[in-house]
Amino acid sequence: MRLEVETSELERIGKAFQAISKETSYEGLAKALLKAALDYSDGGRGAVLLSESGELLTRADASFPRERPKFLASQPPASEFRLPVDLSERVLTRREIVLRDDGWEGSALIDSARCRRGPIVQLCLPLIHRDQTVGVLYLESERKETFGPRYVSVVSMLASQAAVSFESVQLFEALRETNLWMVKGQQIGRMGSYRWNTRTLLSRASRECYRLFDIDFDVNPVPFEVFKSRVHPDDIPALEEALAEAVGTKSPFSHEYRVVHRDGTTLHVVAVGQFDVGPTGDVELEGIISDITDRKAAEQALTDARTELARAIRLASLGELAGSIIHEINQPLTGIIMSAEACLRWLERSPIEPAEARRSALRVIEQGRRAGDVVAGLRTLVRGAQLRFADVQINDAIEEILLLLKRDLERAGVTLNTALDKSIPTIEGDRVQLQQVVLNLVRNAIDAMASVTGKRRVLSLSTKVGGAGVAVVIADTGIGIAPASRDRLFDALYTTKRDGLGLGLSICRKIIAVHGGRLWVEENTPNGATFTFTLPLHQSGSISANH
Q1: Distances 319 to 142, 326, 436, 509 between C-alpha atoms, Å
Q2: Given the DSSP bridges, would you call strands 222-223 and 202-205 parallel, antiparallel or unpaired?
Q3: Do 22 and 161 meet the contact criterion of CB atoms below 8 Å apart?
Q4: Cα separation, 242 vs 249, whole angstroms
Q5: Helix, strand or coil for residue 312?
Q6: β-sheet bridge partners, residue 258
Q7: Each residue of 175-200: pLDDT tens digit?
Q8: Which residues lie closer than 8 Å to 493 by C-beta, 6 or more apart?
Q9: CA-CA distance, 215 to 101, in Å (whole number)?
Q10: pLDDT at 272
């Protein structure tokens, strides 16, 4: 009979050891230890407190942070667990096994102590792992015989097993947390890992990889044909060719293709990998498949935007070219009309004055040729053809432009002051192109003074020789240039005018540049702006507009 009792007891102890050792979580370990200790005593009350960091607090509940997990298991359930100070010192600090008599006021299970009075017996054991107290097993009973020497010995073994299992739980929790981070990271990054056996053509992959391919996760490993069935039919030949080349050369693999889900959703993915020898000795391709659908959409949107911008720039350039032609030939056309009208008046006189009529007709021809030169000059600038360099007297060229703009200056109420250096020698350049620059800058100055009220509108134009070049200075008393616009004033498509297209000053700077000169702007004091361009006295031959 005694042998049967001992055998039954050993079975109970063995089952308790098994229950404790198979736990893979802190909470499960605490509950298994408490259950084994209470089952062996056939009653009583108790609690187990585990702390991963080795530090035990006087209060344990669900508020403990995840990075420092502490689990309290108690019977009956208690919201608080507080060891008496002297018991805490002996068990947690000195690591003693304490068995003592006490009153209900000394109970660590505070909730249970509120409704009772009387003596109790306390048994408290430290849980020691790697020379560190990682927990405590606390038991109490109203009967002294509950915690006899045999019981204390068995419970001590159970506590030791729990302390040993604590390390396994640590490893399992670390593995579980690492796996959780990996799964979460792959979900956030929309990428999955895979390993493909090149001999069996079977693949093992992460959950996120299966999600990308719309494959049920319970199928593992997956035949290559299953993955292939999700690839867009048009992309299969290129994928097979890339795989065959990578397998044949054992070189790193990288390929983009489309994946089609069962509901018709299409994803763009990129697969990368490298070859390695697997556990079975087979060559395997290990890598990552990433969802790049959003990136592809963004790239397409950027391409579309660039195409639209290029189209808009082309249209703006054409519009500006048309506007420039109209702007430049307006003055010659006006001169043609005025000269033709004068010719008619001389012919209608009695007697007819043929000499004056002839001079008017000659002016018509002259202005007509000038209009043709303007069109030819603009066409030359746009096409990048060879400019026609010749000797130019810059003062004469400027005076012709001022004569054409005389009526514009008068209508705008602008006073013109000129100071042309008569000692300037002839320079080498394209007369029409240089006159276009002067015309554009003078008209800009007139426009800049259009809104000026309460003070004089003065345009000053001067020329002078300096160093190895000629400087032409055009200053106004207009509204000036905003600081935000100064650095971009000569950029193509940038304009400060409401109806401007932003190519006038850009073209002017290009004309001066191909002549070997420079064009810049400065602010006037107290108001207005000064545009200055310089030209070298001599050119080393004809210069292309593409220079």
Answers
A1: 102, 11, 18, 19
A2: antiparallel
A3: no
A4: 11
A5: helix
A6: 268
A7: 777 777 777 777 787 888 888 898 89
A8: 313, 316, 501, 502, 503, 506
A9: 64
A10: 92
Per-residue pLDDT reduced to its tens digit, 149-165: 888 888 888 888 888 78
pLDDT at 234: 93
With 0-12 / 13-18 / 19 or more C-beta atoms within 10 angstroms meaning exposed / middle / buried, residue 497 is exposed
Between vectors from CA 186 to CA 181 and to CA 189, what angle results, nearest 5°?
A: 120
297 Cα distance to chain centroid: 15
SS3 assignment for 328-352: HHHHHHHHHHHHHHHHHHHHHCCCC
Calculate the dihedral angle through the C-alpha atoms of 231, 232, 233, 237, rounding to the nearest 10 degrees.
-60
**Residue 107 phi/psi, 5° resolution?**
-70, 140
Q: Dump strand ranges (E) for 185-261.
A: 191-197, 202-205, 222-223, 253-260
How confident is the model over 340-351, as a mean pLDDT? Answer: 80
Q: What angle in degrees, to the nearest 10, is found between the helix axes of 504-514 and 431-448?
A: 140
**Nearest one of 334, 401, 393 to 368, comparing CA atoms:** 334
Whether residue 266 contacts residue 291, with contact meaning beta carbons closer than 8 Å, is answered with no
List the 119-128 sheet strands across, edge first: 70-75, 45-51, 133-141, 119-128, 98-103
Write down the pLDDT at residue 42: 64
Residues 6+ positions from 217 with CB-CB distance below 8 Å: 207, 210
DSSP 82-145: ---HHHHIIIIIS---EEEEEEGGG-S-HHHHTT--SEEEEEEEEEESSSSEEEEEEEEES-GG
Query: According to the model, what pLDDT value does residue 375 have?
Result: 65
Element (H, E) at 367: helix 354-383
505-518 as b/e, with b when 16 or more CB fall inside 10 Å?
bbbbbbbbebbbbe
In degrees and rounded to multiples of 5, residue 366 shows phi and psi of -60, -45
DSSP per-residue codes, 37-68: HHHHHTS-EEEEEEETTS---S--STTS-TTS
**Rounded to 10 degrees, what is the CA torsion of 94, 100, 102, 104?**
80
In SS3 terms, 510-535 reads as: HHHHHCCCEEEEEECCCCCEEEEEEE
